[in-house]
Amino acid sequence: MSTPMQIELVAALLRQGRPFDALSRGLLLLATAWLVLLASGIAKPHAAVAAALLASLLLALLQRYFALRVDLDARLLRVVAGQSAATDLATATAALDEALVGQGMLPRERAGRAWPERLAGARRLWRRQLAALLLQSLALAAALLFAGLHARGAP
């Protein structure tokens, strides 16, 4: 497979992070509302529930960070793939690196990396985004479990 096709393929994969981000935002809203209910005294407070909800919030922030990075990478990969079709991949890569270095988004010593390394890094970010969403979901599930146990009278 040619490198421009690999770039398009990874860009397409990264765009699949958008639904993960949307789901994470929904879970964040749920956890925030639950914490507000706990803080206002409407819901019965329990330390384990609150801790799991706070963990869910922190993991949502981590997921959001990865989602922003993944989305930026997806957009940049699409630009490079489009430019490489009009010129060549080396010229498009140099233009990308120059722009990133100029904006302080890439250290000069990391410019000029090979595409397999860049694409592996982009896929790694996508996997981290998914892992953060999974952990966020598990933390929220733990809060539900703890709330159920607490409602039944368990300590």
Description:
This protein is mostly helical. The protein has one domain (3-151). The protein contains five helices and no strands. Helix 1 runs parallel beside helix 5. The longest helix has 40 residues, at 47-86. The model has no long low-confidence stretch (mean pLDDT 92).
What average pLDDT do the residues reach?
92
- Assess the beta-strand content as a share of residues: under 5%
Shape, principal axes of CA atoms:
elongated
Largest sheet: none
When the domains are counted, the total is 1
- What string gives the helices and strands in order? HHHHH
Kindly summarize this structure in a few lines:
This protein is an all-alpha fold and 155 residues long. It is built from five helices and no strands. Helix 2 runs parallel beside helix 5 and helix 3 packs across helix 4.
Question: Could you name the key traits of this structure?
Answer:
single chain, mainly alpha, 83% helix
Which secondary structure elements does this structure contain, and how are they paired or packed?
Elements: H1 3-15, H2 17-40, H3 47-86, H4 89-102, H5 115-151
Helix pairs in contact: 1-3, 1-5, 2-3, 2-5, 3-4, 3-5
